[in-house]
Amino acid sequence: EEMYTKPQLSSIGGVYKFTSEFDLDRLIKSILSVINLSPIFGSTFKKKANGLFIQKYCSNCFSKKDISVFSDNKKFQKYKNNVLNNGLNIYTGPLVKIGILKTIKDGELFILFHHSIMDAYAIGLVSKNIFDTYERKSHTEMTDYSEYIKYQNKYLESTQFDDDKRYWRNRYKDFTQNFQLLPEKIESGRLKLILKDKYIEKWIKFVEDNKLNENIFLITLLCIYKSKLFSDNNGILAIP
User: Residues with Cβ < 8 Å from 194, sequence gap 6 or more?
Assistant: First the structure.
């Protein structure tokens, strides 16, 4: 997480424009009813002495005072620029910033989440729930995680993903931050993963119940191994 110190990487959000009058009080109530549903939105992080991070959660911790309201467009634009340029602090939180511009004829809703609790796909679902609530529609049920995985796999297999990679490589070609990246292809024989027979059934059930992609899960374990949190002198990754 400490690599994500640049707001361009750690922040994700957008602006919704109202082209006519809207009820400010009802919009605020709609926002609060949605973001107070999940404690993930009120989470912060704490770094322990051993270098590990823990995530703390807070339920129903947002109130009207956490939403910035403006009637002056210049002040609103300044607020947005300030939030975007400074990012969100994972240690103090909140990991959500919300601002509203309300004029006589129209307005804007600005929402920014930290990337550790939100991605581009999920922010659309959350925003839809906000506007469904505002229009007094019933909440749209969140997409099942297995459906989300299908969507992501379809995207990763498409040529659109190649276009994205080219875009981001070009955009950050002069980026000064140093990253430790995994190789695109991990060579066999570099890591020995020991899983005793009696745990195989548990492993399969765990993966299936949580709808996890086995490759992604193993790559995560490799990241842990590289951090030497669970490796021993023989280079063997032991899974507790």
Answer: 236, 237, 238, 239
Quick check: helix, strand or coil at residue 120? helix
Locate 36 and state its tokens. Answer: 């107070």
CA distance 36 to 28: 12
Beta partners for 13? 112
Both tokens assigned to 166: 């080219």
pLDDT in tens, 121-169: 788 888 888 998 998 876 555 556 566 677 777 877 888 778 777 877 7
Q: Judge whether 113 and 4 are in contact, CB under 8 Å.
A: no
Note if the pTM is more than 0.85. no
- From the list 5, 216, 28, the residue with the least C-alpha distance to 115 is 5
The length of the chain, given as a count of residues: 240
Whether residue 39 contacts residue 59, with contact meaning beta carbons closer than 8 Å, is answered with yes
Q: List Cα–Cα distances, 118 to 62, 121, 127, 193, in angstroms.
A: 17, 8, 12, 31
Contact 117, 85 (CB under 8 A): no
Measured from the Cβ of residue 117, the count of other Cβ atoms closer than 10 Å reads: 19
Task: Return d(Cα 47, Cα 194) in angstroms, integer.
Answer: 30
